Amino acid sequence: MELQLALDLVNIPEAIKLVREIEKSIDVVEIGTPVIINEGLRAVKEMKEAFPNLTVLADLKIMDAGGYEVMKASEAGADIITVLGATDDATIIGAVEEAKKHGTKILVDMINVKDIKKRTYEIDALGVDYICVHTGYDLQAVGENSFEQLQIIKRIVKNAKTAVAGGIKLKTLPEVIQAEPDLVIVGGGITGQEDKKDVAAQMQRLVKQGLVSQG
Ligand SMILES: O=C([C@H](O)CO)[C@H](O)[C@H](O)COP(=O)(O)O
C-alpha cells in the first residue's frame, strides 16, 4: 500500500517546498488539477526535476484526446496520468496505448461514475494500471465519501490496482486501510494541517502497517 500526497491549492514553489519537507513520508506526489490549470504541465516538469526519484502523478482528469494528452504529460515527466472513468472506452484505450510507449501508467478516476460496478468491470478489461474511487470537493462538502465504493471495486477488479481519494483524514485513514487499497490519496488531510510533516509521517506509518497486516 502506498501514500500519495495531492497538491491542489498551491503554486509550484510552494509545492516543491512542501514536498521537500515531507518527501520521506510519501510514495507518490500528485500535481493536482487546479495546479495544472494554473501553471500547466510545467508544474509536472519542475516537480520531476526537483525529485527525480519520486513518482509524480499528473491529475489531468482526461476526458478526450487520450493519446495526445498522455503523450504531453509523459514528455513533461509524469509517471502516472489520470483519465476519467466517465469517458468513452476509446479515450481510455488511446491513453493506455500511449502510456505503454512511454513506460508511464494510467490511473482511471471514477469520480461521478453512476454505475460503479458495471464501469469497473469494463475498465478493468482495458489494461489500465489503477482504478480510483473518488469523492470530489463538491460532494465532500455535502458529507459524501468513497469508502463503500472502494469495497465494491475491490470485489470486482482482477487486473488493475485500486486507489481511493477524497477527503481522507488521519482519523478516517484506518477505515480506508481496512479495505486494502493499493494507493491512498490524501490532499487536505495533510496540506490543511498545522504540522504537515508529523501528520504525513503518521499516515505513512499507518499505510505501511496496513501493508504488513495484509501479509
Ligand atoms: O482530485 C482532487 C480534486 O478533484 C481536486 O482536483 C484531489 O486531489 C483529491 O480529492 C484529494 O484531495 P483531498 O480531497 O483534499 O484529500
UniProtKB/TrEMBL annotation:
Its EC number is 4.1.2.43. Residues 2-203 form the Orotidine 5'-phosphate decarboxylase domain. It comes from the Bacteria. One of its GO terms (biological process) is one-carbon metabolic process. The keyword Lyase applies. It holds the Pfam family OMPdecase. This is 3-hexulose-6-phosphate synthase. It catalyses: D-ribulose 5-phosphate + formaldehyde = D-arabino-hex-3-ulose 6-phosphate. The lineage of its organism: Bacteria, Bacillati, Bacillota, Bacilli, Bacillales. Keywords: Carbohydrate metabolism, Lyase, One-carbon metabolism. Pathway: One-carbon metabolism; formaldehyde assimilation via RuMP pathway; D-fructose 6-phosphate from D-ribulose 5-phosphate and formaldehyde: step 1/2. NCBIfam families: RuMP_HxlA (TIGR03128). Belongs to the HPS/KGPDC family. HPS subfamily. InterPro entries: 3-hexulose-6-phosphate_synth, Aldolase_TIM, HPS/KGPDC, OMPdeCOase_dom, RibuloseP-bd_barrel.
